[in-house]
């Protein structure tokens, strides 16, 4: 299999080829698991050409990236398959849900913040994405480890509680279902240590969800 990646600008570009579990096909990459990487090449200017051999049948994820996230311009991906079985490429959708909302807050040298969220209808499926690295920073830049949980504000019961910290370059994700309509839920966002900077929050959901307050 021959993989060619081209940039119309002077961007430094690269790709990683990873094993992909059946359950993750068509879903956004949540964690960059190095144990699943088959091939990892260096960033090249404008053109990346690699011949990949001995690929077993199955599902794989091809992650295309530029060295800096703010690179703009046209990119072209070409994949030539010399194997017996057909090769099928499917672009992963970028949206987290049918409805999207974005917000952000300042840490102000704290290590936890509360956002209040409310769904218009019951059993609304929600995906939260949290990102603290600034746009345009390199993949090696510092990112605070985060975790997030959701609680029912009326009784304090946990809807989903996270104990593990995560500093994934693609952001930290939290999936949950908000069981009640017109009910305030507490979205607790924590970082491993106190600090400053901005945390950007993206909310994707199956129904309309509003961020009603911040604490």
Shape: elongated
Tell me the radius of gyration.
20 Å
| DSSP strand content | over 45%
Mean pLDDT: 86
**Main beta sheet:** 5 strands, antiparallel
Condensed summary:
This protein has strands spanning 2-7, 12-19, 37-40, 44-45, 47-51, 60-66, 75-80, 99-106, 110-119, 124-131, 146-152, 158-160, 172-178, 184-195, 198-205, 209-214. It has 215 residues and is mainly beta. The chain starts with a strand and ends with a strand.
Can you put this structure into words, describing what you see?
This protein is mainly β. The protein folds into two domains: 2-80, no CATH class; 99-214, Sandwich (Jelly Rolls), CATH 2.60.120.380. 0% of the residues lie in helices and 50% in strands. The protein is built from no helices and 16 strands. Strands 12-11-14-9-16 form a five-stranded antiparallel sheet, with no helix packed on it. Strands 2, 3, 4 and 6 form a four-stranded antiparallel sheet that branches. The protein is elongated, with a radius of gyration of 20 Å. The protein starts with a strand and ends with a strand. The model has no long low-confidence stretch (mean pLDDT 86).
What's the helix and strand layout?
Layout: E1 2-7, E2 12-19, E3 37-40, E4 44-45, E5 47-51, E6 60-66, E7 75-80, E8 99-106, E9 110-119, E10 124-131, E11 146-152, E12 158-160, E13 172-178, E14 184-195, E15 198-205, E16 209-214
Antiparallel strand pairs: 1-5, 1-7, 2-3, 2-4, 2-6, 8-15, 9-14, 9-16, 10-13, 10-15, 11-12, 11-14
Protein name: CIC11C00000005439
InterPro entries: Calpain_III_sf
């Amino acid at each position: 299999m021959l993989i060619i990646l081209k940039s119309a600008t002077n961007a430094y570009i690269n790709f990683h080829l990873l094993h992909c579990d059946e359950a993750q096909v068509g879903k956004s990459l949540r964690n960059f698991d190095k144990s699943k990487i088959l091939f990892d090449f260096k960033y090249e200017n404008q053109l990346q050409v690699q011949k990949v051999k001995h690929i077993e049948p199955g599902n794989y994820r091809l992650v295309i990236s530029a060295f800096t996230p703010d690179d703009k311009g046209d990119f072209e991906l070409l994949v030539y398959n010399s194997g017996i079985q057909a090769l099928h490429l499917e672009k992963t959708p970028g949206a987290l849900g049918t409805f999207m909302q974005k917000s952000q807050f300042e840490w102000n040298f704290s290590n936890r913040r509360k956002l209040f969220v409310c769904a218009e209808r019951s059993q609304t499926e929600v995906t939260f994405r949290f990102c603290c690295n600034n746009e345009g920073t390199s993949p090696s830049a510092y990112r605070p480890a985060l975790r997030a949980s959701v609680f029912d504000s009326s009784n304090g019961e946990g809807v989903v509680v996270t104990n593990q910290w995560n500093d994934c370059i693609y952001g930290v994700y939290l999936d949950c279902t908000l069981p009640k309509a017109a009910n305030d839920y507490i979205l607790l966002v924590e970082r491993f240590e106190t600090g400053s900077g901005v945390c950007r929050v993206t909310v994707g959901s199956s129904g309309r969800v509003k961020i009603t307050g911040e604490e």
